[in-house]
Amino acid sequence: MPSHSSLQKAALALCCASLLVGCDTVYQPMGWDGGYEDKPLSDKHYWLKYQGNSTTPDQWVKDSWQRRAGELCVNGFSIIKLQGIENNAQKAIDLNQVIFKKRNPIIEGEIKCQ
Fold first, then answer.
1. What was the pLDDT predicted at 21?
2. How far is the C-alpha of 107 from the C-alpha of 37, rounded, in Å?
3. What is the mean pLDDT of residues 20-36?
4. Which range (8-17, 62-71, 88-97, 101-110) has the least confidence?
5. Other C-beta atoms lying within 10 Å of the C-beta of residue 91
6. From the centroid of its chain, how far is CA 42?
7. How would you class 74 by CB atoms within 10 Å of its CB: exposed for 0-12, middle for 13-18, buried for 19 or more?
8. Distance between CA 12 and CA 104 in Å, rounded?
9. Would you say 65 and 51 are in contact if contact means Cβ atoms under 8 Å apart?
């Protein structure tokens, strides 16, 4: 029979592992811990949003937004409108210009497929 000490260590290891697994947003449709949302506006024209959670790096959100845009528009896309959300005030057309000033980073915008 395992000792009380070894059971405590195993329980602690399991708790730590579960905390680490649940920290970052994974690339996925929108869920309780973030992800992407998109909706067609017209033919080959989409509104797209990607939201991270409080531990998601800003660059991950930018890369994930771009990844989803590439999945929607396999032959390339143009960015029509883009904003990184800081009380809906931070606006940019270039992903490199998007700066997040609070956690749970979000990028949303419109794209037009080639």
1. 46
2. 11
3. 79
4. 8-17
5. 14
6. 24
7. exposed
8. 28
9. no
Beta partners for 10? Answer: none
**Domain ranges, ordered by start, for the chain:** 24-113
**Mean pLDDT along residues 11-40:** 71
CA distances from 75 to 67, 69, 109 (A): 13, 10, 18
- Name the token pair of 65: 């937004």
Dihedral angle computed from the Cα positions of residues 57, 62, 68 and 69, in that order, rounded to the nearest 10 degrees: 180
Q: What's the full length of the chain, in residues? A: 114
What is the reported pTM? 0.68
Please report, as a single letter, which amino acid is at residue 93: I
Using DSSP, how many helices (H) and how many strands (E) does the chain show?
2, 4
Question: What is the rounded CA–CA span in Å between residue 72 and residue 16?
Answer: 37
What are the E-state strand segments in the chain?
A: 35-42, 45-51, 77-84, 106-113
Is the model more confident about 16 or about 94? 94
DSSP class of 16: H
Residue type present at position 50: Y
